[in-house]
């Protein structure tokens, strides 16, 4: 984060920030991204619109940071000693209820991300790229341990596979993503694609 962004964001307490983020996510679920306004957030959180803009710059950054605030910590330090264990641990960070809520938010934002350049860029900068980078460290450890061939072409599609399973579970099966589903997907699709032998 730049010094300017850090200075801009340091004027609010962590507790107040968490409260604002929860309010933003509630409004997002209720009205969707397009109908969500900074005026509505200000009214809902008893904040001034000027404060919101000073802290977050705009709606796109506020929404994406609110979504990121619900992530259960980074994945780069997950190291169980095996890729299977690491992937299971990543899936195990969120219970089924949290996954269902996150999937619903992603569905609500899917069209807005395609149509709104600011939102798409905020998603890429603040959510997607940091997580892909952290995930890359988990994969690099698996390569270093000799579990995965560094030339395996499936490595280029690993994040796509995992995100795809999460995002399309409801669309295809009319069911929310769950830990059980994602673990079975890892065993049936992801690990075989990477050449990791069955247990």
Descriptive account of the structure:
This protein is an all-alpha fold and 199 residues long. The chain has helices at 3-9, 14-31, 38-45, 49-56, 59-69, 83-91, 96-115, 117-144, 158-173, 179-193.
State the major sheet: none
Helix content: over 70%
- What shape does the CA trace take? elongated
Which regions are unreliable across 5 or more consecutive residues at pLDDT < 50?
Answer: 1-9
Number of DSSP-assigned strands: 0
**What is the radius of gyration computed over CA atoms, rounded to a whole number of angstroms?**
19 Å
Broad structural category: mainly alpha
For the termini, the CA-CA separation is 41 Å
SSE blueprint and pairings:
Blueprint: H1 3-9, H2 14-31, H3 38-45, H4 49-56, H5 59-69, H6 83-91, H7 96-115, H8 117-144, H9 158-173, H10 179-193
Helix pairs in contact: 2-3, 2-5, 5-8, 6-10, 7-8, 9-10
